[in-house]
Structure formats: C-alpha cells, structure tokens
Amino acid sequence: MTGFFYNRDMVLRTDRRILVCLFSVTLVLECHSFSLTEFLVGPRIGPRTQHATPKNIKLTMAQQLVNTNGYPFEEHEIYSEDGYILSLHRIPRSKYDKAPLKNQRPVALFQHGLLASSDVFLFRGPEYDLPYLLADAGYDVWLSNMRGNIYSMKHKAFDAEKDSEYWKFSLHEVGVYDLPAIIDYILKITKEHSLYFLGHSVGSTVAFIMGTMKPQYNAKIRLHLALAPLVHALHEISFPHKIFLGSSISLTQAIVSKNILNVFPRREYFSKLLGTLCANGVPTQFFCLIFLYSLVGIDGQQFNSSYIPEFLSYFPAGSSVYLTSHATQMYAEGDFRPLDYQNSFLNYQKYHQSSLPVYNLSLVDYPVTLHYGDGDTLVTAEDLAFTETKLPRIIGKFRVPYKHFNHMDFMIGTDAKDLVYKELISLMNKHR
C-alpha cells in the first residue's frame, strides 16, 4: 500500500485531542466495513463495481444544460499520451451569433478545479455562468474534464470500474499528458495558433505544471487567467483545515487499503440525500453551511443557499485518490512539487528519475493574470504574492472587490459576473 505524509509544521501541531477523535472515527469506519466508507467516499474498484460512467449516459447533463439555454453544444473525445480518453465540451458560439460556425473565433479553454466537472459551471444559466458569457462575448468556448471525473472515465486498456491501475495518477499526469493533448486537439480543430486558458484552483495548477514540464507549449497559451490557483500555500492554516490535514493521512491510507481509488464520484442517490439534508428550510442545512464555510471561507452574501440541491447534483464529480492527495500535499507542505508516492519504485515509474522532478515556474513564460478573493481560506493574497515573484510574465494580480469573496464564489458566486467574469473578458479582449 502506498503511504502518504505531509511535513508542514502546522499540521504536526494539530491538537492531540482532535487527532484522537478522528482516529476513533477512522476506526469506526474500518470496523464497519459493510461499506459505510464506500457510501461516504466511493466504490471499491473491482469486478462487481457498478457506477455511472459516460458509456451509460445517452444525453449528458452538460449537453442538456447548454441546449436548454439555447446554445449549440458539441462533445469531443481525445486520447492522451498514456491512453486516457478525455471528454471536451464545446460551446462554439453564442445563441445570438448567426454567423457560420466555420467563421474563426478566438478560443477559450476552461479547466475546472478539484472534484468538479464542466457542468458545474453551466447549471445556473447565461445570466450567471462564465462559459455562456464568454460565448456571448464572441469566444469559441471549450470546457475540459479531468481524467477520472464523470465524463472522462475511459481508457484504451483499463476499465475504470475494475482496474486499479487506471486510478494511479495525480495532477502531474493531467499537466504533462492531458492538457498538451487537449490543446493540440483544439488548435487543430479551430485552426488557431494559441488559446486563452482559464483555470479555477487546481485547474490552473495543471497549466503551470505543463508550462514547467513541457515549456514548448507555452507559446500556445495566449493568456492564462488563474482563478485562485493552488501553487504555493504559505498562509497560516485555519483551524478547520488543520483538522482535515491532521486526519487525511490515516483516512487516505484506509481508503486505499480498501481499494477505494475513485473518490467522491457523482452518485444520484448520494446527491439527492445531501440535497435533501442541505435544502432551504431544513434544520440540517445549518451543518451543511458550517462544513462548507469551514473549507472555502465564510460568505453568506455571495452563496445562494437555494442552489445547494442542484449544485450537489453536479458536484462532486469524482477523481483519483492520488490526485486529491497531490492537492492536499501541496497545500499542507506549501511547496509546488509532484506527488511523493513514498515508494521509490513507483516514483521512478511515474517520473522516470530517482528524485522527484522540480516544477520550475521561471520556465512558464506565457502571460498570466492572478485572481484572488479576501475571503478565500484556501488560496490567499499572501500565497499569490509569492507565486507572483516566481512567474516571469505576470500581467497583474487582481483582487475581487468584495471583502468576503471565497474559493467557491469563483464558481457560483451570486455576483461573480460583475465582480470577476466581466473583468476576465475585458482582459482577454485586451490581449487579442
């Protein structure tokens, strides 16, 4: 079994009593192996596993959302270098644009963050969601789905439901294999030479990984608009985050030992249960909001709680336990580096060298804008101030002009259109 550990001092100083309680919870989960862990986290990988994958979906939720709002929709499948089959969703033009599809438009590629998918940025509609606004502004919009989520669970050789090898990837592989293949495919289809890249959270992280590991692709990024990107985490970790990080090692090991490698996949029954517990007017909603705000930051004004049931039908959308561990490792340690599998053979197999490769941000020579919110407890102004010093072509660092704007508000903030999205489109227009 692969081990995990994080060495940031603040994690090690987590209150001992909290760790004892969390260890007890873990013990309960282990003892009740009837599948409480599977119910909460995800299914075991093996012959009897059955859960939704794209091959079982006749009409994707993303397509229904886009078409219902009157916009054209396309779905494309591409192959990464290491055999993963990825789903791209495309809104080629605005519903108001009657010009032929063959007319060239500037290309915008959007990459979602951790445990998300393309449709979490589509369900509120054209008045609120960034992809529609980009299409209305004249852009050819592509939305990528990371390997391992509900839309990108196919492989040339592996079955995601049965083969544990499928799930042995982290953010590193997304940046090194997937994103280059996606960019090449889009530019070939559109006959463009470069594109605009927009990433939320680890969606931007993978673009920085690509820029360091495959710098030949930097010329293909016209502008990278990084929304709360997780790169270097240097801020004082909040108390709830200390609790999470202090328990993540043992919980991850317990999950992997049960061969639960697809974590928090989209499951209709689970989404409906959470949606019921967290809906407006239900007493348990209070606990849902406390949990949510403890992770992403408190912001009662930008978060419309009536969205919760619908939001939970799209989020989470699944990922590999190793990818989530990579994000957790970067946050806990504060360093921008590949996942350490704590296994020299596996590390060598993954990185083709005895030591972990270095992500050298000085190699990322495409233009970048950094965007952050004061209410974000995951990615802070302090973090981005340090990241800014490492990137050679920073266009600007932009604070969202609202005091409590948090990490999730970039996705579903009530006023995100006026506070963030309009500025993004303005910056893109200036760099045409």
UniProtKB/TrEMBL annotation:
Alphabetized UniProt keyword annotations: Hydrolase, Lipid degradation, Lipid metabolism
Residue stretches making up the Partial AB-hydrolase lipase domain: 63-123
UniProt-annotated catalytic positions: S201, D376, H407
Keyword Amino-acid biosynthesis attributed: no
Record flagged with keyword Glycosyltransferase: no
Recorded coiled-coil stretches: none
SUPFAM superfamilies: alpha/beta-Hydrolases (SSF53474)
Protein name in UniProt: Lipase
